[in-house]
Amino acid sequence: MKRNVSLEEISDGKLYTANDMVKADCHGCVGCHTCCTGMGDSIYLDPYDAFNLTVNLNVPFMALLEKYVALGMADGVILPHLMMTGPDEDCNFLDSEGRCSIHSFRPGICRLFPLGRVYEKGDFKYFLQTGECVYKNPTKVKVSKWIDLKDPKENHDFIIKWHDFLESVRENIKSETDPENIKAINMKVLTSFFMTPYEEERDFYTQFNERLKSF
Ligand code: SF4
Ligand code: SF4
């Protein structure tokens, strides 16, 4: 989701690539789950998250909407985001010990935290959100190691394609005046990239590219 703040206000002013070192390592978050509570609707999911959640939990996407995921407006497009519930507004994937129960396949935004992405000229870089992680003395870690994806190159390309796709959908929606047409566009995005089941045995990126092509 876009934020109406300058990078200088919320970061250390630097931009990072996957090969750079960044002061983000909070050493396993021992005893802390601050960034898994009270996040409102800010942890939006992308199709790769939908693939990982449905395949690893072995449930259809619609089942996630009962407890773990809600739909919200992300800069004009309806997208799924993690659901926060209870008096402390906890993510429902937190276990009774306050640990993430889906750590190995957690959503991309959770992997990134406290990093964010800045998109420019058909690519993106990372930035460090200062003042977000409560860990007192984070140490340096390579960005790619922090995000810890098994397919970084494919994921990088996917992130750019998904970002550009959403931008084009937003433009489309902006130019529409008929609420029924806007609803239809949103439904098509949700159906094409989230609700239609992914095949576990097939590579995610191939399936995503097919869906993008036929959208
Ligand atoms: S706030 Fe920082 S230390 Fe606490 S859970 Fe989040 S990343 Fe870990
Ligand atoms: S999915 Fe895991 S890491 Fe992400 S907010 Fe929920 S508990 Fe925290």
List keywords for this structure.
215 residues, two-stranded antiparallel ribbon, binds iron/sulfur cluster
Describe this entry's structure for a reader:
The chain has 215 residues and is of the alpha+beta class. The protein has one domain (10-210). It contains 8 helices and 8 strands, in the order αβααββββαβββαααα. It has helices at 7-10, 47-57, 61-67, 108-112, 143-147, 152-174, 179-195, 204-213; strands spanning 21-25, 69-74, 77-82, 84-85, 90-91, 115-120, 123-128, 139-142. The strands form 4 sheets. Strands 1-8 form a two-stranded antiparallel ribbon. A two-stranded antiparallel sheet has the order 2-3. A two-stranded antiparallel sheet has the order 4-5. Helix 6 runs parallel beside helix 8 (204-213). The model has no long low-confidence stretch (mean pLDDT 95). The structure holds iron/sulfur cluster (2 copies). One iron/sulfur cluster (SF4) is lined by residues 36, 43, 82, 91, 93-94, 100, 102, 106-107, 110.
Q: Briefly, what is this?
A:
By secondary structure, the chain is of the alpha+beta class. It is built from eight helices and eight strands.
